[in-house]
Amino acid sequence: MSVIQFPKQKAVFQPFAHFVRLGEGSYRRVADLIAAGTLTSKRVVIDASKAAHQRDSIEMLRGRETEIVLDPRTIELSSRQKCGGLASSAPWASAEKGIPLAPDLFRKGHSTDIYGQIARMCVEFGVDAVLAPTQFLGDPGFDGWYRINVEGCELLRSALDEAGGANIRIDYLLAGRLGDLRQPDFQRQFLSDLPSMPVDNLWLRLSMSPIENSPTNAQRLIGTLAGWHNAGAPIIMDYAGGLAGEALLSMNVVSGIAHGFGEQTTFNTSNWNDAPKERDQEDGKKGGRAQRISVTALGRTFTSKEMEVLLSAHGARSLLLPTERHIAPNGVQDIQTDARRFNAADAEHRLRAISKIPTVDRPEFFAQTRMREVASTAKRVEQLNPKPEVAKANNIDLVKLQKRLADQRKKADSMRETFEDIATERKAQGYLAKEIGSVRLAVPHKETGTR
Fold first, then answer.
1. Phi, psi angles (nearest 5°) of residue 179
2. CB–CB of 356/13 below 8 Å?
3. pLDDT (tens digit per residue) in 72-127
4. Cα–Cα distance between 266 and 245 in angstroms, integer?
5. Whether pTM exceeds 0.85
6. What residues contact 147, with CB distance under 8 A and at least 6 apart?
7. CB-based contacts of 285: which residues, under 8 Å, 6+ apart?
8. Which helix (H) or strand (E) element contains residue 347?
């Protein structure tokens, strides 16, 4: 008699991974939020460009049994435009600032020993995992990165073992355009190569317009990721924050997301072949981009000045501020004095809500509950009447702001309808993302003095 083994049953509440990127400009504040318990994630990503300044934070994270992943930043360092920015502080950046890393540096036996440098940093800082040093597959200056990257995984594994980091794991970071993933030939090639790579998880960083702005992009991305369910490794969507991150987790097409707060939330390479900028303004400091406030009920962000204008309208606070007291115990004052804490606490609240929904019900929850909240809020926000004098004092064009609100209302209605269709498709397809493993710790706590 033959025995038919049933597939392993999925957990009713399948966990997902939330990787918090400390970032390059906000790393001190984000680390403080983790230490204070505002951010409860047990997985963080540190940038090689700032690791030297994060020793105290790394020791604190070890003590909290947090999985620490190192990003070597080779994607930016191999880009003509981005190589001269903040990532240029990484030890393996070109000695001549503004010169991108060339393909030959990543080939076996090159004198720079870039894999050895990365491995030794991993061991020195006691990280638990490292993102494979890869490049953007759509690089207009070189179309052979893929094979170099695949071979580089093996070279990094050997370098880690030689440097004393045999317990440090590798995650593969695939950076490209959505169209790359949709190519059948590329998909077959990658899914054939992946099982033999010495990696745990597959990270995806895709250059595309935000899905919350485009129903078509939402359908294409989720449909594409659904087709990758048999990759054999958990999929982490990198640079995916806000409503987009919520959507991907809820639709059960990824095993986790990674993002920063105020930076590293979207990935766009439309001008990466341009001349390098003198200063990378991705950190949100003075002279860079303005601090943005997340309004999760609307699934949008506004500058602090725009937020002040909106809150001057009658009834705006009940619409734009969360009702949960712990997120903003002092109301508007919390946003004004510590926007990053507010954003982090609100984002954690949204992800916790998803985790409490049975896995198979998450697509319907997102479409019927979350997106209806967004659409309803957008409709009511469009009807707000901010005070003109407050707009003038903050140098905000009130007419343009109100037009944006009207456009967002239209997009919210369209996105709600789109996700209702996607949720129906996902329920019919049935399969779920591969379950993520537990937090990885390269060295048992009892073997270190800091854990």
1. -60, -30
2. yes
3. 999 999 988 787 788 888 999 888 877 899 999 999 989 899 999 999 999 999 99
4. 10
5. yes
6. none
7. 25
8. helix 339-355
